[in-house]
Design a protein that fits this description.
This protein is mainly α and 122 residues long. The chain is built from seven helices and no strands.
Amino acid sequence: MDDERVKSMEDKIEHLEFKLNLIFHESNINRLLFEYDITEKQYSLIMTLMDEIEEKINKEVSISNSEYETKLGEITEKEGDYHFAEYIARAFWEDERWASVFPYLYGDFPKYKHIINERDEK
């Protein structure tokens, strides 16, 4: 076998191992990553993005949901899929990770106000 084919097979095995780990460690975000076929490298970049956004929020630096969606689309090659971006932020929020990001980016959206308010009341 040539080196390129071996590398391709290794990459596929690595991706399958990552997906198996997602299945075995059930959470909202893992389910979403599995369904959207996100790679481990993309996941790492998504977590870095979430850190960056949370840091901006903490420093009271403005960031819009469209900026977040664009950056996430560049990472995942899902440009323009704002639903996916919302799902990612919400899944992290539901898993109590980067808990300030989802309400900051989407808290003013009528479709999310009630679930955010319910959680705040608890």
